[in-house]
Amino acid sequence: MSLHCDLQIHVNGQQTFFLDEKIVSAYSGRLRKIIRQEKRRTQIKSSGIEVDNFPGGSDGFELVLRFCYNRGEIGITVSNVSLLHCSAVFLGMSEKVAASNLMPQTEKFLEDMFYWSWNDVIASLKSCETFLSYADSVGLLPKLVCALLAKIAQNSDLNLINSSSSSSSSPEMASRFRFSSSAKTTPDSKSPSRSSKAWWFDDLTILSPLIIEMVVKSLGAHGSENNSLTLTRFLLHYLKTVSQRKGNTTEFTASTKSDYIGLTDTVVHGVILVGKTAFSCRGLLRVLRIVSGFGISKDCRVGLERLIGGMLDQATLDDLLVSGHDRGVYDVNLVVRLIRVFVNGDGRSAQKIKKVARLVDKYLGEIAPDQNLKMSKFLGVAESLPDAARDCYDGVYRAIDTFLELNVQAVESPSIVNHQNRSIIWNNFPNVFG
């Protein structure tokens, strides 16, 4: 770069650049205007110019400077075109300011995005994550999402175009989407196995939840509008992969979880729609485990639990052993809610109710050794079934015996607590000791 530096520019409060005023103002209409305004008010040599909310921060600004100091030339690739384009728009680097300026160069490069390879489209989308809102505001992000969906539609038998999504893109973009997705091949396109509808699932897991949410919205399938089983399975795969990468979803901050709640609610709406036809009781409980780690709305949780509870007679003991909260080993409150849904449902045969009762007694035996389990919760599980559900109380008795034996060891006067607990149990289950 030139050794002549008569201009200081502070970018996003991160870094200060010492520049040649003539070089940068020759390409940037915005900086040229700011410099003129500052010269009228004060000496900018000492104070410099503040540039806030610059897309890509200091890295993006440095990339633009390479263009300026290299006489309007820079290597444009799928990995940097998004940043260069957004930076050029921000700085007003149009053809009116300079011939063959950065903005027209990036626009020309982006014209061919529908003919990029699958990996190129993903790489360009991925590069937008640090300046996502700005890329969206200038219309770049919707175009890249449209190109992505065109690739998916092109290499699968899925009809991903939803009529309600037309409002999210211009008529020109919708036309290009239809053209590209109807084509059999495109230059340098990825050639996945058409035998699998899920060939694109893994590749998209590297993208941020906000980009994935935009993909879902572009399909007109966000939230309660989701009626696609394939999309639902993809979102489950995405959330599960993110969870595994982060190790423990409970470590997510509240702000991080808020980025995912739109996706989790979309998943639940899709699951509820297809219900028993596509998911077993075990599968639904797995869905609940996945989405609970990220957070879901109350209405979605109630709807999913109602669906699971209605199929409780298909569950096994392992299915019910969901990790608990509030210091407990297992989520006992969840199981109580599921049992109540089942018991209060219509058309439950005596055979199914007795089957659930045997399952509940096994569950009682499993949770009984938990020394953090309160008596009220233990009894809540046992009392959740009607009297007619059990032919005998042997399973309950064994669970109670284990609970009393292990839990009274943690207090100072076990004999007193043992007597008190047995009195409580006697009042609630006289048949156990009768």
From TrEMBL:
Domain spans labelled BTB: 5-70
Keyword presence, Signal: no
Superkingdom per UniProt: Eukaryota
Record-linked Pfam families: NPH3 (PF03000)
Signal peptide: none
Pathway(s) of this molecule: Protein modification; protein ubiquitination
InterPro entries per record: BTB/POZ_dom, NPH3/RPT2-like, NPH3_dom, SKP1/BTB/POZ_sf
Residue stretches making up the NPH3 domain: 198-434
Family under the similarity heading: Belongs to the NPH3 family.
Protein name: BTB/POZ domain-containing protein At3g19850 isoform X2
Organism taxonomic ancestry: Eukaryota, Viridiplantae, Streptophyta, Embryophyta, Tracheophyta
Gene giving rise to this polypeptide: LOC115736652
